[in-house]
């Protein structure tokens, strides 16, 4: 299985201020901005491109149920997750299972950009939140 870094997710408190930082300081470009009210997501997301790399800025929209709000409360703002493009998510899930690595099954979904994704259980990843994703319509 090939693993390619897809993006880094960063938990922020103020999305507008964070976008300005990435645009003005890092010369980034805002590619998209959208809100997801799905249970277990409850975030506003800004997709930035900086020197050919993708960054997802994640701001909670519900301070009681958003996992981003919970993350910020526990660990503060900053890097939330690292996402890897695995080309075939179904195959990657079989491989994880064969290696005894668990996923957070309730996080399996398709986002606004057609990306299928799931988060690995941080207990099995030495505490790092890792997302596996693929783009079925591009494969």
Folded structure, characterized:
This protein has 139 residues and is an alpha+beta fold. The chain has one domain (4-134): 2,3-Dihydroxybiphenyl 1,2-Dioxygenase, domain 1. Helices cover 21% and strands 42% of the residues. The chain is built from three helices and eight strands, in the order E-H-E-E-E-H-E-H-E-E-E. It has helices at residues 15-24, 67-75, 89-98; strands at 4-11, 29-36, 43-50, 53-60, 78-85, 103-110, 116-120, 130-134. Strands 2-3-4-1-5-8-7-6 form an eight-stranded mixed beta sheet. Strand 2 (29-36) and strand 3 form a beta hairpin. It is globular.
Over the alpha carbons, how many angstroms does the gyration radius reach? 15 Å
Number of structural units classed as domains: 1
Strand order of the largest sheet: 2-3-4-1-5-8-7-6
So what's the overall shape? globular
Largest sheet: 8 strands, mixed
Structural class: alpha+beta
DSSP helix fraction: 10-25%
Summarize the helix and strand pattern as letters: EHEEEHEHEEE
Number of H- or I-type helical stretches: 3
- By CATH, the superfamily comes out as 2,3-Dihydroxybiphenyl 1,2-Dioxygenase, domain 1
Estimate what percentage of residues fall within beta strands.
35-45%
CATH class: Alpha Beta
Annotation, overall tally of beta strands? 8
Unreliable runs: none
Mean pLDDT: 95
Q: What CATH architecture label applies?
A: Roll
Compute the separation of the termini in Å. 15 Å
CATH topology: 2,3-Dihydroxybiphenyl 1,2-Dioxygenase, domain 1
